[in-house]
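SEQUENCE-TO-STRUCTURE ENTRY
===========================

Subject: a protein chain together with a token-level encoding of how that chain folds.

Sequence line: the amino acid chain in single-letter code, read from start to end.

Question of interest: how does this chain fold, as expressed in backbone structure tokens?
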Amino acid sequence: MKNVKGLVLAGGQSSRMKQDKASLQFHGKSLREIAAAALSPWAEEVYLSLRYGQSVFAWDPDLLIYDELSDIGPAAALLAAHKLFPESAWLVLACDFPFVTEDAVGSLWKAHSGSHGNPVGSLVTCFQHPDETPEPLFAIWQPAAFVKLKENVSRGIQGPLQTLKQCLPTLIVPENPQWLRNTNTPEEWAEALRLKK
């Protein structure tokens, strides 16, 4: 899609999972591969975001983006992507949503594009969880939203959720609640494996 790039967030420490989440296998594919495949129809290119020093085999090195800042969580990945292509919107997806599909990303894209194919005015378009919390790591971020994120990080406000809320996002209720089931702990991963059967 014109001037929208995809970003798979795979550079976390996975401290709660105690192993690299992005490498976990689900239906025979790694979670990073599942996320990239879901984004691919809706983005010009799909990049993989990693922390400095991290390596991934069998991935196009031209499609890797490394964090430049440390100890600020996923904001580092978002800001590194924005620095690389500051004029682009980014379709962002964390790697820990095993039930994500092309249709899930497509419904987000359609909400972003509006009924007449023109992007809505919001700086961020995202899903919301059943408790009405917006999901900043499964969202479309416009360039101006990254500018606000950078300002917030410079003031010590590092969480993307705080910036997202300031952007008055367009919120979407997912057609399938499973799309937003994420896996951060061994228990959540075990439940995801049980549900996939």
